[in-house]
Model the fold of this input.
Amino acid sequence: MQTDFLQEARRQAEICNACRYCEGYCSVFPALHSERVFSDGDLTQLANLCHNCRGCYYACQYTSPHEFDLNLPKALAEVRQESWEHFAWPEAFAKRFQSSGLMIAIASVLCFSVFFLTIRTLGSAGGEGFYAVLSHTAMVSIFLPAFVFPLFSLAISMRRYWSATNGEPVRLSHIVEAFGSAARMKNLAGGHGDGCNFEDEDRFSQSRRLAHQAVMYGFLLCFASTSAATILHYAFDMPAPYPIWSLPKLLGLPGGILMVAGSLWLMALKLKADKNLGAPSAWGGEMGFVALLLLVALTGLLLYAMGSTSLMPLLLAIHLGSVLSFFLLTPYTKMAHGFYRLAALIREAQRKRTN
Done:
């Protein structure tokens, strides 16, 4: 996968390796300084290990107008974006989403919402709550394949990534270390724990780290809520709807609120950030993904608040349309970056234990 982006990243990595001023900034620089020659796989690993906190850019003495013209966050972001497109399956879908992500997300939600409204006009199999609009059997028939497909697609992507970066057999200790780093968002805290420079060049902030944590933990709570509802339905013969004190509600409500708050926060940060320190061509895809996350969470909360009103069928159609879009587009959106970052952290844990 020899490209201009890889060549430019290699040039900048070699200069950074000679300078070593940013050695303590994040996990990228110890990994970078452990190499003398950078293969395509090395650069792909460094790119996915980078969390684009941008602290190294503002600390660097070789940025423009210096003749070296270093912009390592951008160089790695472009390699990272290219790797996601190259490893994705099917690859063509990933390239299309990155260039027109916001429009594709909007079109997908609209089309699937109309689809669910059309199903409703054909009649429901009956049931309480949401199942009076769309039967449980219909929901399972639609969403089970939509849930399995992205897992299959991402498994292919991860296998390609692991092969390209010369990944070794994984041990439990590697996984534990990687998950610990991801849970704390360690690489968004900066080398000294002050945060990153994503908002302003002279201001360290934890905002981006906290916004990511709100979205991540909100999503995990919502996933746990859905899992709890599934267990109650099949194992205990307790179908929805569930009362406010039930486990699905106790997990889902705070999860939805965290996702809404975190998504809005991330969108605000992205609008303020310098696009030239990331991959400019991927901005629309990234914003489309965050907007899709926001819509999933927001419509879920609105359904809870207005589930007994005449607006429920419309809200349900929009919510289901956004959830189905989210599942099917996951391998091509920035949702996939969580899997790549985790794989990169596992690979980094291997490197540290080998050296």
